[in-house]
Amino acid sequence: MSQRPLLAGLVLATVLTGCGFHLRGTEGTLKPLPFTKLYLASPQSQIHPALVQQFRFRPDVTLSPTAGEADAILTVTEERSSKEVLTINRSGKVNDYELSYRATARLTVRGEAYGNPMTILARRELSYVNNQVLGKEQEEQLLYRDMQQDAAGQIVRRLSVLKPAAATPAAAP
Predict the structure, then answer these.
(1) pTM of the prediction?
(2) Rounded to an integer, what distance in angstroms lies between the CA atom of residue 93 and that of residue 132?
(3) CB 40 within 8 A of CB 58
């Protein structure tokens, strides 16, 4: 009797494996980046720790302590966080806020712009049901850190598909 669920699970796993199914994030193969040594040029940015963490997961990239030793430089050119009222209850009190985080990054490889600047936008909802105030500041900070992690992951993924910027033709005299 107990072998039947085990057998059903084994059959299901075999069928899913045979059709090419895999869990998200377990692909195993990373798309190569157009560089092997990277310098993160914006250490004062809020997203910097998240970018460092994301690049530590990449075995094909090492973070360089100086721009001179690096093949490429990633610069966070703009960051913006905002908090807007999303919903209000009948008595005029806030029920939900929408938190948003926007980051723009630019890659240069060997001194030349590589691709267009990337802008990442992450949004989260912060609920204030029954006017719960305790712990909401910590929850808000956690949501902002989560959005920064999400944005850093998106930047790293976009770098693998980034194409070199088209060279502008020289002006004729």
Answers:
(1) 0.74
(2) 12
(3) no
* Separation in Å, CA 143 to CA 24, 103, 119, 122, 148: 22, 15, 19, 10, 9
DSSP-H helix ranges across 78-135:
none
pLDDT-based confidence at residue 63 (cuts at 50, 70, 90): very high
- H or E element in which residue 74 lies: strand 72-88
d(CA 114, CA 69) in angstroms, rounded, equals 18
| pLDDT higher than threshold 60 for residue 54 | yes
Strand partners, 63: 38
**For 26-135, where are the alpha helices, taking DSSP H only?**
48-56
- Tell me the residue length of the chain: 173
Q: Which distant-in-sequence residues (6+ apart) come within 8 Å of 55 by Cβ?
A: 38, 40, 61, 63, 156
Specify whether the CB–CB gap between 39 and 73 falls below 8 A. Answer: yes
Structure confidence by residue, pLDDT tens digits, 93-141? 888 999 999 999 999 988 888 889 999 999 999 887 765 667 788 899 9
